[in-house]
C-alpha cells in the first residue's frame, strides 16, 4: 500500500436485514396497549389473553376460600364489591312477584287484590339510621319444627354477611309453642339438643329474640337472601321488601321473568347442576337430606353469586333445564290424553299385571300443587 494512502478503520462487515413494511393498521394493532386488552381489575396490568389474566389474578390476588365441610366457597374481592352490590340490587324482586309467591310485604308496598282479603302484615325491618349503618346484604336460613295444626315454629336462625361470608349469627331458638314434630330427619335438631342448649343458655328465647337479632344487623335497605326465604320471614313474623330468593331467580331464568312459576328447583339440585358441589352429604349432617343451616346459607350465597357474576352460565343452564322441563310436561300431558281420566295410578302393586305403576312425578300436576313443592328447599 502506498505511504500516502489513508488508513481506513477496520469495521466489521454488516449484514443488511430487510424487514417487510407492515400496513398502518397492522402496526397499530401491534402496539402494547392494543395487544394487551385484558386488564387485571386489582393492579391494572394488561394481558393478551383472558386465560393469562385469570392465571395472574389467581396467583397474585386470590383471596383464601371460605371452606366449610370440605367445600370451598367464593370470596368477593374489594375490586368487585361495587359491581356485585349493584347486580345484587338488580336481582331484587318486584312487589308483584313477591306477593304472588307468598311473601308478607310491609304496608304500602304490596299490590292489593280487591277480590281477596288484605293479608296480615308483619312488622318490617327498622328504618335506616345513617349514624348506625347495617349490613348491605344478609343470607338468612331458618330451621323449623311442626306445631299443632301443622304450623311451623322457629327452631334455629342462621345469618351470614353476603359480601364477606362471615357468620353473623347461628343459634338454636327455644320454641314459643309446643313442638309435636321436630323433623329430625330434616333439621337435625332434637328435643334433647334443644333442652341442652336452653340449659346452657346458648339458645335464643323464642322467635321475638331471633327477630331482634335480624333487626340488629338489617334495616329496610338491607337485601335479604335465601332459598324460599318467605318461609323464614314467616316464622320470624317479619316482612321485608328488598328480597333475592334464589329459588325465584333460577325459576325465572328457566321459565321467564314474567311467567308463572310452575316449579322451583331445590337448593341441592342448583348446587349440583350450577356449582358442581354436593351439599347435605350423609357423612356430614348425620343422615341423607339432613340440613346444616350454615351449609345451606353458604350454598345459597354461592348460587346467587354465580347469578350475579356469570349471567351467561345461568342462561346456558336455564336453556338446558327449560328444554327438559317442557319435554317432561309434554310427556305427562300426552299420557293423560292417551289414558283418559278413568285410569287410576297404582302405587302399591309391583306385579306386571293390572294397572301401570307410576311415580309421583308422573302424575302430579304442578299447576294445582301448592306454591312451595317439597323440592324447593
Mind explaining what this structure looks like?
The structure is a single chain. The chain has 377 residues and is of the alpha/beta class. It folds into 2 domains: 66-321, Ribonuclease H-like superfamily/Ribonuclease H (Nucleotidyltransferase, domain 5, 2-Layer Sandwich); 323-372, no CATH class. It has 15 helices and 10 strands. The strands form 3 sheets. It has a 6-stranded mixed sheet, sandwiched between helices. The chain has a two-stranded antiparallel sheet with strand order 1-2. Strands 3-4 form a two-stranded antiparallel sheet. Strand 9, helix 9 and strand 10 (243-245) form a beta-alpha-beta unit. The longest helix has 29 residues, at 311-339. The protein is globular, with a radius of gyration of 30 Å. Mean pLDDT is 81; it is low at 5-31 and 342-375.
Which terms would index this structure?
377 residues; two-stranded antiparallel sheet; 6-stranded mixed beta sheet; zinc ion binding; 15 helices; Nucleotidyltransferase, domain 5; metal-binding; globular; alpha/beta; REXO1/3/4-like; single chain; zinc-finger
